[in-house]
Amino acid sequence: VQLQASGGGLVQAGGSLRLSCAASRSTSSITDMGWYRQAPGKQRELVATINSGGSTNYADSVKGRFTISRDNAKDTVYLQMNSLRPEDTAVYYCRASSLRYNDYGEPVVSGSWGQGTQVTVSS
Description:
Elements: E1 3-6, E2 9-12, E3 17-23, E4 29-38, E5 45-50, E6 56-58, E7 66-71, E8 76-81, E9 90-101, E10 107-113, E11 117-122
Parallel strand pairs: 2-11
Antiparallel strand pairs: 1-3, 3-8, 4-5, 4-9, 5-6, 7-8, 9-10, 9-11
């Protein structure tokens, strides 16, 4: 599965951005999708995830400000980011887990990362 992220940019504190990440069509089924971010000098951290049933999980730092959603028909995940803060500045990566069955009927789970999109919030 290949992922293509878009929607990053430069915004002032308090502003909003919407990220999108589309998965390429494949024989695998997309299960969980999510967004992670990595600021300069820091480790990559989870921002939000959503499973195929729509259940979501958020990092405490973004709860109430960010909303993750997905369109299963399009294998696309979105991240609506409101009330942005300078500390939200990072490269944002989307991730998708996919499931397929091998020739023996055994499940094979794989993970894929998008290329990253820069989000910069100015104070």
